[in-house]
Structures are given as C-alpha cells and as structure tokens.
Amino acid sequence: MTIKDIEAVLIREVASILSIRAKEIMPGALLHTLGLDSMGFVELLVFIEKEFKIALMESGMTKDDFRTINSLAKCISKAKG
Amino acid sequence: MKRYLTGIDWVINSMDYIEKIQSGIGNVSQVVVELDGQLDSGVLRESLRDFLKKFPVLYGLPSRNINLCPYWKVFSRGRDAQVRLNVAQIGDADDPLPLLEAEINKPFADDRELLVFTLVNAGPKSFLGMTFDHRILDARGAETLLDYFQRYYQKKNIPDISLGESPHLDQWKEKFKAGRQVNRMFLGLAKETSRSLPASSKSRACKLKTVHLDLDQASLFIENAYAKAGYLMLMPYALARSVQLMHRIFEVRNIPGRAYLIPLSIDSRLREASGDQLFFNHLSFLFFKIDADVAGNFTLLLASIKEQMYAQVKAGLPEAIKRASFLLRIAPLPLVNFFLKFLSQKNFSSFVFSFVNSVYNSKGFMEQAVRNMFHLPRVPNPPGVGIFFNQFKGVLNITLSYLEGVLSEEEADSIGGAFKDIGNES
Q: B284 and B185 share a domain?
C-alpha cells in the first residue's frame, strides 16, 4: 500500500468517526482542528491496530507522528516495512 | 404517539425512579448560558412557549406496550405549552450559583413537567439556566435544544425532529452475547469493594462548586494534557487530575478499600446532533478501576487510565453496554431499583465523571453574545459526588456536584481551589 492509499483509508475512518464527508478532510490538517476528541482518537488508534495489524503504542512513534493523517500514514507505511 | 425507549433510556428512567424515592427529586441537570447582556423576560417567555409547543414529546410519560417494550407516551392534547420561567435580579458582583443551584434541588411541578427556566440578571450580564429531566434530554441534547431555539428565534431552519425508534425486539443473540461480556466486566469490577464516601442520611440537598478556566488557562491546561498524557488525551488527563484530587480526600479520611471505581458517561451520537437524536439519551459508559496505590503516582495513574480506555474501546465495551442494556427493559422499575441497590451496597462507584464538548453552534443567544455555557448536574446517590467537565469555545468549565454531608464545605473548596491552581500551572 502506498502512503496515499493509507491516507485514503484513514480519511474514510476519520470521516466515519466524526460523521463528516471525507472530502472535508485534508491529510495535512491537525486532527484536533477536525473536531476529533479523546474518544474519537482512541477509536482511530484501535482501527489502525486492527486494520494494519500494528500496535502503535509499541511502534516507537513520537507525539508529532499522531497529529495528522499524513504523518500517521507515513508511520504506518514505515512500520509495515 | 409513542417513542420506544432504548435500554440506555430505561437505565436513565431507573435512575430517575431511584432518585425520586430517595430525595423526591428526579435525575435532573441544568445547562446554563452566560450572556453579555440582559434578556427581556417577557420576550423570552413568549419565544420559548412558541418554540417548545412544537415538541409534544416534552409532555409525556414512560409507559409499557402490549409487547412489553417500554415507550414514551406523548400526550398530543391535554396540556397547553406552559413554560415556567423564574426571574431573579442580583448585583453585578453577586454570585448567581446559589440561585441556579436551588433549581436542581426542587422537584418539578408534576409528572409531566420536564423543563424549567431560570433567568438571573446580574448587572451587565445575565444567566439563563434550563433545568431538564434526564429522561428526555442528555447534556448534548439540552445544548442542541437551546441551539435550535436560537436558530428558530433567528427564523433559520431547524432539522426535522423525528421520534422514530424501533422497539429493538430482534437480534437477541447479539444482545445476550453483549450481556455476557458486560456481566463478566461487572463481576471483575465487583471482586473487591471500591472506595466510596459515606452517604449522608440527613440531607439530600445537592451542592455545587464551579471553576471556569478562561481561554488562557484552558489553553495551558490543554497544553499540559497533551504534554503529559499525549496528543488529544484531554479527557484522560482531566480524569487523572480528578482522581488525584479525590484521592487526597479519601486518604485524609482513611476510607477503606483498595481501589477507586469511576463510571464515565460518553456520548454515543454522531458529532453533529441530528434531529432524531435531539431527545432522550444517546450515551454509553466506560468504567475505570484505579488502585489506591496507583492514584498517588500521577504518571502511573495516567498510564492506567489510558490503558483501560484503549482496552475498553478495543473490546467494544461501550457498544456492548448499549446492546446489553436492552435486556434490562423487561424489568419493571422497582426491580431495576432492587438490582441497583444491591450494587450500591457493594459501594459500586467512588465518584462519577463526564467530559462534554459543547455542541452549541449559534453565534449568540437572543441578540446577546454568549460568554460561556456550562452544566450543573444533580449527582446521583450513590456515590453522591461527581466531577463534570465541559468545553465551550475554548473555555473549560469544571463542576463539582455533591450531596450535602458527603463532602464537607472545606473539602469541596479544596477541590475547587486545586482545579483553579491547575489552570495556572505551567
């Protein structure tokens, strides 16, 4: 999967959590500016773990890696090798 | 006209029943709008009456269908849309809280009254409190109702309000599976007695302390939360801070028990409340068990809360609770009361907690700028203590709600003071 593919999957999930249209989500937008809160963020992390079979908490990601869909997609791609 | 009640609605109805037996007052809360100006009470009363008469659901009672499914019976006739609005005047520097607090300590006029408004004029400011029965609105629903009122007042469109809800008399296998999952969780939590404060047998008056962190203080609080708990981990951080403060009280009082148990209500509706999610309750719960040894170490406490939150979301517990709660609907309210009393004998919770992000989207309220919006819930007994956070346009509000006698005035002041100090912590 390319980074763009991963971004598309993540955008669909964030849109579903927030009940907004996927078109409204820019991959570079900070997640809190989209309206994501603690619960929504944990739901997203659980989705990533199940969908991409990676444990984010143990993957050595830094705080900045979690802030945007783009940064998350890059980390997932890296973790997947 | 009828609207079938969900399992969660039935739990809320049960809590209302229990609260009425104990205190004569139901399961109520109040949402307060703080305005940068005064409202004309006559115009407000007429506008509210005009708006609320569109919702006959506000004149109803729980009932049971022939298929045993509980429903909300809506009386389309039989009562004119009367709106009770109490008006008070205080000085610029006076605290409106005692007047607002008094409203959550009064029973509604009768079974069918579900909303009461209180307008407190305080010099150049005013406070409008809407006290509501939790059987018909949850916290976000109450904010949305005020938002729709404002849109209606401005002659803007409001979404269609549909009361459609299926009786949910299908998918029993899933409901029983969810019931098993929830039962296992409760058995795990009930293995040992949780720490709880002794309830007062004398007074059932609910007292409140509020702390409002302004934009700068709230930004600092959020920065601290992100730095210490991680990006977007504001709610776990607020809960950890609350446990830390309550732990101090328990330690000073030498309360027995090895762990704290904190139920946390979470909103289960979509971000933008749609018309069919305005009324009734759209929520579920998470449960946190914190070892008393861990509560004294903030780093471990925070890690424990985050870990439990992640594990419960991963296991689909909030959804399982919603599904399993449908099984409770068969039980009449006195039986649910008996079951909940049994749990309370085990000191089932130490205090309750919630964190609400505001959904009031209108710019102002009846031509006045909205300074703030906060919640004043009447805490259920047991546990008789609750800490409630809400975030409104960058401002952070914290309400400590407790039954008189459960916390002393000094203890309540110490918690309020500590939250103020946290707001200034860099």
A: yes
Q: Are residues B143 and B177 in the same domain?
A: no
A47 in reach of chain B (CB within 8 A): no
pLDDT at residue B272 is higher than 80? no
The tens digit of pLDDT for each residue in B188-219 reads 887 777 899 987 666 679 999 999 999 999 99
- What are B318-329's pLDDT values in tens digits? 999 999 999 988
Residue of chain A nearest B272, judged by CA positions: A19
How many A-B residue pairs are in contact by the CB < 8 A criterion?
48
Partner-chain residue, chosen from B230, B310, B357, that has the shortest CB–CB distance to A37: B357
Interchain pair A49, B314: CB under 8 A: yes
B326-352 average pLDDT score: 78
- With CB atoms and an 8 Å threshold, state whether A63 touches B231: yes
pLDDT tens-digit profile of B5-20?
999 999 999 999 989 9
Q: Please judge whether B236 and A38 are an interchain contact, meaning their C-beta atoms are less than 8 angstroms apart.
A: yes
Q: How confident is the model over B279-300, as a mean pLDDT? A: 96
Shared domain for B336 and B408, answered yes or no, is yes
Structural domain containing residue B333: 172-358+380-423
**Single-letter code of the amino acid located at B289:** K
Pick the CATH number of A3-80 from 1.10.10.10, 1.10.1200.10, 2.60.200.40, 1.25.40.10: 1.10.1200.10
Tell me how close the Cα of B375 comes to any Cα of chain A, in angstroms: 19
Taking CA–CA distances from A50, the nearest residue in chain B reads B314
The rounded distance, in Å, linking the Cα atoms of B421 and B426 is 10
CA B11, B68, B111 angle in degrees (round to 5)?
55
CB B51 within 8 A of CB B150: no
In a domain, B372, yes or no: no
Q: Which of B306, B310, B315, B312 lies closest to B233, judged by CA?
A: B306
Kind and range of the H or E run holding B215: helix B215-229
* CB-CB neighbors (< 8 A) of B309 in chain A: 38, 42
CATH number for the domain including B115? Answer: 3.30.559.10
